[in-house]
Design brief:
Helix 3 packs across helix 4 (110-121), helix 6 (147-153) crosses helix 13 and helix 11 packs parallel to helix 12 (320-328). The protein has 3 domains: 1-55 and 78-99, no CATH class; 102-154, no CATH class; 169-373, 3-Layer(aba) Sandwich (Rossmann fold), CATH 3.40.50.300. It has an 8-stranded mixed sheet with strand order 6-5-7-4-8-9-10-11, with helices on both faces. It has a 3-stranded antiparallel sheet with strand order 1-3-2. The two termini are 46 Å apart. Helix 12 (320-328) links the parallel strand 9 (306-310) and strand 10 (332-336). The chain has helices at 11-22, 72-99, 101-108, 110-121, 126-137, 147-153, 181-196, 210-223, 233-242, 265-273, 289-298, 320-328, 350-359, 362-367, 370-373, and strands at residues 2-8, 27-33, 44-50, 169-174, 200-204, 226-229, 248-252, 277-284, 306-310, 332-336, 345-347. It has 374 residues and is of the alpha/beta class. The structure holds guanosine-5'-triphosphate and magnesium ion. Guanosine-5'-triphosphate is lined by residues 175, 177-183, 206, 209, 212, 255, 310-311, 313-314, 336-339, 344.
Amino acid sequence: MRLKSYFANTVESALSLARRELGPEALLMKSGPAMPEARYLGAYEVVFAAPESAPEAEPPAEPARTGPGLPPAFDKLMHDVADLRRQLERTTSAVSRASHYPAALATSNPAAGQIITQLQEAGVSPAAALRIADRVLGETQNPPCEADEAVAAAIPVSAGIRTNRSGRRVVAMVGPPGAGKTTMLVKLAVTQALGCRRPAQILTADLYRIAAAEQLRSYAAILGVGFATAETAVLLSQQLEEHRQKDLILIDTAGYGAREMDAAPDLAEFFAAHREIDVHLVLSSTTKTADLLAAADRYAIFGPSKLVLTRCDETESFGPIIDLCFHTGLPVSFLGTGQQIPEDIEPADSLQLARRILRGKVQKELEQGAWVAA
Ligand SMILES: Nc1nc2c(ncn2[C@@H]2O[C@H](COP(=O)(O)OP(=O)(O)OP(=O)(O)O)[C@@H](O)[C@H]2O)c(=O)[nH]1
Ligand SMILES: [Mg+2]
């Protein structure tokens, strides 16, 4: 017997999917809400046990104990009990295999085993590792692909700032406190504005931290770029209008902590009303997976279209990026690779990231300067 999981947004669709593929003989082992790390595959999971090719041979039924004085109904009862016991044994072994499915796959297929181990060591969740291993084995893709390519395919990238319909680029940085929004914004101001010698404007909606706004004003002055503060969504709209002739507008925002999201809806409405703004969600790659996904959910109200990952210089395990991409469906735009402005910024590259995830030697490479060279 082999176990197979089917995911869908309702139990009924998951069941019909499984029945279509496995036929009516397959045995339903488990159904219910999918584990959090597998939710991107569907809200519900059903696990079926199906014969490998031919149905498994049934062990001979235990001979019914008959004897003088026992009524015929007792024979039947004994048969039923033996049947039930066999069914229970099958279920127990199948359920235990289901909970160790990645490990079971790894044991049965060394190629899958190697990639699953590498991915899990890099911090990728078992569900995401399994999904990638499936691609390497050709289960969800025909023909199968190399491990690097399978991992790269899990990390969509969109390196750059979107040019909107009026030919301008308006970008905003949103994200948790201290994620690196302001630093990334200045790196972008230098690389994108100075590089093209076009008129640019920095706007900040973050007036919680006066010192940070003043620092941003100084950077703008050094770069010869306009600077203005806009404390409210109304003021931001006015500033956007006032600087509509500028080619590049960079908007910095405050970091809202998990308990400060009450203050966020105004800004969220502003972004919803200004679809021309390319909103980048800035997250630190040193954050653990569950917190990354929770932050991504919290910041979804701003409608980000890209992910920026900072502190890539401070981690050796890039695996959580894969879970983040699966979870949000968003591409990665830029990577922050250190504190230096403007040097420590990289446009995201799927294959490079995939190789670093699989090699798991990011820190050593960085120390040797390979990050820039690769
Ligand atoms: N090592 C490293 N440090 C970084 C990186 N990006 C930002 N930092 C540092 O992280 C700290 C916080 O960066 P900020 O840019 O102020 O973060 P922020 O998201 O604007 O913070 P708030 O405005 O307070 O929400 C600063 O000390 C930065 O130098 C990075 O890629 N690598
Ligand atoms: Mg800031």
